[in-house]
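Look at one record.

>
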Amino acid sequence: MERTPITRWLPHLVATVFVLCGLLVGTLIHFYANQIVQAAKPHYVINRPEYIYAGAVNKDRTFPCQTTNPATCFGPKQIQAAYEVAPVLAKGITGKGHTIVIIDAYQSPTIRHDLHTFDTLFGLPDPPSFNIVAPDGLPPFNSFDSTQVGWAAEISLDVEWAHAIAPDAAITLVLAKSNQDIDVLNATRYAVEHNLGDIISQSFGEGESCVDPQLLKQEHELFSKAVAQGMTLFAASGDQGAAQYTCDGNSYFLSVSSPASDPLVTAVGGTLLEANGTQGSYQGEEAWDEPQYQAASGGGFSTVYPRPDYQNGVAQIGGYRGLPDVAFNAGIDSGVLVVWSSSGEGEDLVFRFGGTSAGSPQWAGIAALADQLAGHRLGNLNPALYAIGRSNLYTQAFHDVTSGDNTFVGQDGQGNAVAIQGYSAGAGWDAVTGWGTPRVAKLLPLLIQPPSSAPMRPLLFPFR
C-alpha cells in the first residue's frame, strides 16, 4: 500500500486543530463571561409596605377608620392599650437611655418633619434624639421611582412606630445607598461596628436561598458580633405567607425570609388585631391573611439554618429553624396610622399601613422598654422568649393566636395563578404567628428573668 507523505496532510491537520481550539476557547470565554455576569448581577432585599390613604393631618380629629368596632385603623394610644404597653409607660418605663437603630434604604426627605407632625397629632413627645446616618452616601430622592417611594414609606412607618412604643428612646436611622444586598449589609455593618444602639430593626427581606451564600455567611458573622455586644435584632418575617418572591422576582416559591431566618434574629410575624379604635381594648386576634392584598404572615422553616438550641423541645419544629418567633398586628384593613409627606400625593397626609414590617419596629420599641427596666442590654431575646413559651406563665405574657393560616394565593408576573400551601396557627408556637403577640406589662419582667432561670423575685409583675 502506498503511504501518503506527512507533508501532504500535516497542514490540513494543523488548520483543523486551530479551528477546534478557536471554537473551544470561544465557548469557554462565553461560559465564564456568563458566570461572571451572573456573579456580578446584584440582588435586592424587598420591602413591601401596604398603605391606604386615611386623611389629612388634623390634631383635633379622629379618623373614621378608628370609629368602627372593631376598628380598621389604630393610633399609638390604641396599640399601647391593646398590647398592654400603657401601664409600662405610666410607670416611667419609656425606653429612656436606650437607642433603637432602624436599617432602611434610600431616604425619605420629609422624615424629620413627619415624625414631629406624628408626635403632635397623637400627643407624643419628640424623641430625645433622632439621627440619620448614610455611611455610603445617598442618591437624590426621586419621587417618580417607585422603589425609592416604597422605601420612603417604610422609613416613615419604622421610625414613627418604634417611637410610638418607646417614646423616650433615641432613634438612629441608618440608610443604605440602595436596596442591593451588599449595600444593606454594609449599612448594617456600620451600625454594628460603630455600636450605634441597643436594638436593630430590619423591615425587609428576601427568600433565603436567593442570598449569595458568602454574603449570608458574612451577615451571620455580623449578627454574631452584634449579639456579643448585647444588641437585640429583629426582622419582619415577610408578607407573602409561606412564600417568597422567586429570585428573579417573577413568581413565588415556598421559602422563609432572610434576615428573619437567622437564629440570632427575632422574627416578627403578623396578626389581624381586633380592638376598639378609640380606647384600644383588646378583643381578639387571628393569623394575618388578607388575600385581597395577596398578603399573609411570613413563616415556615429554614433550609439553611439548623434548629437552634432554644427551639429544642418545640413539637412543631423539626431539624431546621422555624419562624416567626413572635407576632404583632399586621393587618392592612386594621393598620396603624402614619404621617407621610414624601408619597408624591401631598404633605401632611396620614396613611393606614400594614404588613409584618410594622411589627419589627414595634417589637424593637418593646425591647427598648425591657432594656430600661433591666438597666442593661438584653441581647438575643430568643432564648428567653422560648423559655417563656414553654412555661406555665406563657398565656400571661402572650396572646396565643390559634386560628388562621398563611397559605399564599396570588399571581405571578404573567398573571398566572400561584398558590403556595402554608401552615396553620394553633396552640403554642406555630409557623404563622410564633408564640403570638405580647402582653407587654407581664412580658417585660420575664424577658429579664426567664422562668427557667433563678427563682422569681417580686420584680415579676410590677405593672398592674
Summary: The first strand starts at residue 50 and ends at 56. The radius of gyration is 25 Å.
